[in-house]
Amino acid sequence: MRILHVLDHGLPLQSGYTFRTRAILKAQQARGWQVAAVTGPRYQPGGVAVEHIDGIDFHRTPALAKLPPVLTELHEIHAFSRRVAQVADAFQPDIIHAHSPVIDALAAMRVARARRTPLVYEIRAFWEDAAVGNGTGTEGSLRYKAIRALETWAVRRADAVSVICEGLRRDLVSRGIPAEKIMVSPNGVDLSLFGEPPAPDLALAESLGIANAEVIGFIGSFYDYEGLDDLIAAMPMLVAQRPAAHLVLVGGGPMEAALRAQAEASPVARHIHFVGRVPHGEVERYYSLIDVLAYPRKDMRLTDLVTPLKPLEAMAQRRLVAASNVGGHRELIRDGETGTLFAAGDPAAIAAALAGLLADRGSWEARRVRGRAFVESERNWAVNVGRYEPVYRKLTGGGVSPGSWLRPPVSA
What we know:
CATH class of the largest domain: Alpha Beta
Distance between the termini: 35 Å
Structural class: alpha/beta
Pfam families: Glyco_trans_1_4, Glyco_trans_4_4
Strand content: 15-25%
Protein name: Glycosyltransferase, exosortase A system-associated
Helix content: 40-55%
Domain Glycosyltransferase subfamily 4-like N-terminal: 16-188
CATH superfamily of the largest domain: Glycogen Phosphorylase B
Shape: globular
């Protein structure tokens, strides 16, 4: 089996998107399948045509000059499609597997139609909702509706669709997409990357001023939807109950300046520590210091539909997890068993949940064991990747109906 993956971006960039991609491709290679990847024109790691990283060939699409809105996207689709076609001519894939955003599916669709190669479209989040989540879009706007309609059109014409969670599957079914066309390939982790948790880095703890502290931590990107402002707002109430509690925030992003200003104005400012971005190889040192990983995502369409990767990575490393009770978290966390859930957008509820967890140290080890066992049995990529095989086999054995590509997009 030869699978060509069409991606927005890839390694060596470090992100949840690239970690999932790497896990899928490495697990497919471990099954004996041949894989290659093409990344889009928006991602330029250095101007090279091909990079061989971690045993995977990443073919790059040249950068493009900026044009007015809409024309830019059309130009990108055309150029990306041309690059995918070049790689497909050399690689001769049995399956073209495009990953969101929808612009990738549209570029891959042209090539799949021309080659009569089956197309699988994998959706990790809806592009229009992701734009709302990161502050570059508005729900219900004309652009939002147009992208949603285009997404629906692309899903209807792909030969099979993969989504990362039940929330996305239910949304597509509500749009009239046949349920049997959609497979769920949930977020998972490559357990080969996670050995025994490292011993606490005492020197690092001393340097941060958190030696002997009860440490709440967040490691990731600082987007508004992550709810870190609610977590900072909870800290005075948490410290009132647990005077040794400290918050460590590792990462950066659009909300960083606002969050730093909020923390500086907090009456417990000395209990809140910003580390900034750190090299990926250094992240484990910070994990070693954190007692509870907190994920206080806000309640909105994006977080209700999409499951994040970070809580699974934390469980794989036998860390305690506390998160808001949005839909994406409820698919991952069993309250009181593998983690703790609290009301989204409610600093008092966050403080109460964290205080209760910090006070119940006797339950920690059992929760860590259950969290790790959940990942091993249900969210391990060595197992998860097998979900693709029956879809791939059906498509390569049954062929493609070319008529499905020919109808123009309609509003949804």
